[in-house]
Write a structure and sequence with these properties.
Keywords: Cell membrane, Membrane, Transmembrane, Transmembrane helix, Transport. This protein is mainly α and 426 residues long. 78% of the residues lie in helices and 0% in strands. Helix 8 runs antiparallel to helix 14 and helix 8 packs antiparallel against helix 15. The two termini are 34 Å apart.
């Protein structure tokens, strides 16, 4: 899931613009509508999962295993350039929406499995830390596979446009990368099916959310991450003349994130999740601005290491806080029972919706700035827009998220109180 998500997050935007060569407005519609559709399907899938009956392999596992082959096919055709030109927008919109639907059928039950592992808060936090570490490694693998295969996208010739031969070969390498990632998805699903035994536990919860602050924090976090991911390759290619290094910079960010997740797990246990969220998310602010104003290779790698440190916190903390929200609601509504999938599907809904807005808005900004599809160099307004999307916009998102985090009600004292109350209830 993370391997495929990483490849689409970093490279789908530039693929639609420069390889599929659809209009920037159409590309923004594909990215926004696809993400929005994925967001809409999250609570729908969550509802149907709650109505699913228990089978020999569990209630959640059939959804993940059943959707995987179809998801792999839709993912492959998402990176295929059809022979026709006029209807390419419909092609990519259709397959991206189909891919988002199928990945929802996988991700919602997968993330909800956390609630089936244990009723103890510390064990859930530990499981979440392990899961996020492996997910960051998956993101690293996805960026590495896609980045290394398509790193040399094209060579510029007359007037800064790629040669037709190079352009044709780039279509093929994107398909090769899609095939490799699709095969890896199948292997990982088989490993999960053989290695995870779902238990029909008593961790059933209500469908409504009490602490919506976590959703709003997640919106800002996801808007920020998607904004940086989708525009980072374009930024390195056209704004700071680091086109030959962007894949290594991306890998550095993700490696730093993977290594620092254990630190943040220790930090949240020592100082609390709210404090950890403040420190971790704030850390990235000066470094995103630094890369914009000091665009050289050494600074880029310094920023990459520091950014990975903050990315790890922004990935781990919200997922670690979600089970606390679930427990808090259960105590406030002891007679209400539902299913875990609803909580996780609503959380995924808000994050995907934020990602869709981020992708759509950023691509529209590039269109208004005069993005030249397929060109090796972009006009000055495009370069300036990319710097704003990488520098100023993330700072605004972080500031908004931190303001909301101030009123987040579940402190460490509340968590301890809830833990004791849940032990008595069980």
């Amino acid at each position: 899931n993370q391997v495929a998500g990483s490849a689409t997050a970093f490279f789908l935007q530039i693929y639609l613009l420069d390889i599929a060569q659809i209009h920037p407005f159409q590309a923004s519609m594909v990215l926004f509508v696809g993400k929005a559709w994925g967001a809409i399907t999250d609570p729908i899938v969550g509802f149907f999962i709650t109505k699913s009956k228990w089978t020999k392999i569990g209630r959640l596992m059939p959804w993940m295993v059943g959707c995987t082959p179809f998801m792999v096919v839709s993912y492959f055709y998402l990176w295929f350039v059809p022979p026709f030109t006029n209807e390419r927008f419909i092609w990519y919109l259709g397959f991206y929406c189909l891919y988002q639907t199928l990945i929802t059928c996988f991700h919602v039950p997968y993330s909800a499995l956390t609630m089936f592992l244990s009723t103890d808060q510390r064990e859930r936090d530990s499981a979440t830390a392990y899961r996020m570490t492996v997910e960051v490694l998956g993101t690293l693998v996805g960026a590495a596979i896609q980045g290394q295969i398509v790193a040399n996208r094209f060579k510029c010739v007359d007037r800064g446009f790629p040669s037709p031969l190079c352009f044709s070969s780039q279509k093929e390498v994107y398909m090769i990368a899609a095939g490799v990632i699709g095969g890896l998805f199948l292997v990982c699903t088989v490993v999960m099916f053989l290695g995870v035994k779902e238990r029909d536990g008593e961790c059933v919860l209500d469908q409504l959310m009490r602490s919506l602050e976590l959703h709003y924090i997640s919106i800002c976090r996801c808007f920020l991450l998607q904004l940086i991911q989708s525009n980072f390759v374009l930024f390195c290619t056209y704004a700071v003349e680091l086109r030959d290094h962007f894949q290594n910079i991306v890998l550095t960010i993700l490696m730093s994130a993977a290594v620092s997740i254990p630190f943040w797990q220790w930090f949240l246990e020592k100082f609390g999740k709210k404090t950890a969220a403040f420190c971790g998310i704030t850390w990235i602010m000066p470094f995103t601005v630094m890369l914009v104003f000091i665009p050289n290779l050494i600074v880029a790698y310094v920023v990459a290491v520091s950014s990975g440190f903050s990315v790890a916190a922004s990935l781990l903390l919200p997922w670690s806080m979600l089970p606390d929200v679930v427990d808090d609601f259960r105590l406030a509504n002891r007679n209400s029972k539902g299913h875990e999938a609803i909580f996780y599907s609503l959380y995924a809904f808000f994050t995907k919706f934020a990602a869709g807005i981020s992708l759509g808005v950023s691509t529209l900004c590039l269109q208004f700035a005069g993005y030249d599809t397929g060109a090796c160099r972009q006009p000055t307004p495009v370069v300036y827009t990319l710097k704003l999307l990488i520098g100023a916009a993330p700072v605004a998102c972080i500031t908004t998220g931190l303001m909301i985090l101030v009123v987040y009600p579940i402190s460490e004292d509340v968590r301890l109180r809830n833990k004791l109350a849940l032990e008595e209830l069980r």
